[in-house]
Backbone:
């Protein structure tokens, strides 16, 4: 109710200042959308890197193809939510891999196996963590049919570090946006509504009733500014929730739009000081 009263008083008494404040709120929303777009793109890139991570389980030489397929089924049942796929790599798969990657042409020998059987394991990106992969490797090491476990420890550590950095950067960006939105709104209200500091009309426009002491009214005005920030955050979160699959495509639009809105807000403020009578 305080925010609606504040907006109504601004529209009725000071329409030009209301336009300036609306530009500031639009800038906050666009900044939030740009941050969410960056987060969606980084998350998608991290998911693609996790999907490319593979684990090769080299089986014993006496294991047959049927036993290898049975072992692959058992591994899928061991961690169904973690494993995306468990593929059997036979001589044909290795020959095709050498041909496509290294240009080496190998021929299959009838009755003889060129390479040992191996299982290629891929993980679900959303469920993949360094601890989960380490626990799965420990379980695979206890299986007697598995001789060697091949993977890239550097890539696994890099994925874990990237996920941790993404969480920290997202938290810092969110806190910075809240701080900037709160202080920016208070500063914008102070400069956009240049009323005397001790005039009761200043706090009245901020939604603070006159029957309370001045400190209580100042606290009331601060809560109103925080409530406006939460409204802007709700608008940005709603837009993000409705456009999650397409949010990454907005990144090339959100940043130039934010710069344009910032420029328009600056020009509007400058024109406001020139046009508005003293």
Residues:
């Amino acid at each position: 109710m305080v925010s609606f009263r504040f907006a109504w008083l601004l529209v009725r008494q000071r329409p030009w200042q209301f336009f300036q404040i609306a530009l500031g709120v639009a800038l906050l929303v666009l900044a939030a959308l740009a941050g969410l777009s960056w987060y969606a793109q980084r998350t998608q890139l991290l998911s693609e890197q996790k999907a490319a991570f593979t684990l090769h389980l080299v089986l014993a030489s006496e294991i047959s193809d049927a036993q290898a397929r049975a072992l692959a089924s058992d591994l899928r049942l061991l961690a169904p939510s973690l494993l995306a796929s468990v593929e059997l790599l036979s001589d044909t798969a290795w020959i095709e891999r050498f041909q496509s990657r290294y240009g080496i042409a190998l021929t299959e020998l009838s009755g003889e196996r060129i390479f040992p059987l191996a299982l290629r394991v891929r993980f679900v990106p959303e469920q993949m963590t360094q601890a989960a992969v380490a626990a799965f490797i420990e379980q695979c090491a206890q299986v007697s049919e598995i001789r060697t476990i091949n993977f890239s420890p550097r890539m696994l550590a890099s994925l874990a570090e990237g996920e941790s950095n993404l969480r920290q950067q997202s938290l810092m960006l969110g806190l910075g946006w809240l701080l900037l939105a709160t202080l920016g709104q208070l500063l914008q209200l102070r400069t956009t509504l240049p009323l005397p500091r001790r005039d009761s009309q200043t706090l009245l426009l901020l939604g603070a009733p006159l029957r309370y002491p001045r400190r209580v009214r100042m606290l009331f005005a601060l809560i109103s500014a925080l409530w406006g920030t939460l409204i802007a955050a709700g608008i940005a979160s709603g837009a993000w929730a409705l456009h999650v699959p397409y949010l990454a495509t907005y990144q090339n639009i959100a940043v130039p739009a934010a710069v344009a809105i910032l420029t328009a807000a600056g020009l509007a403020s400058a024109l406001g000081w020139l046009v508005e009578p003293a």
Q: What stands out?
A: Residues 272-278 have pLDDT under 50 and may be disordered.
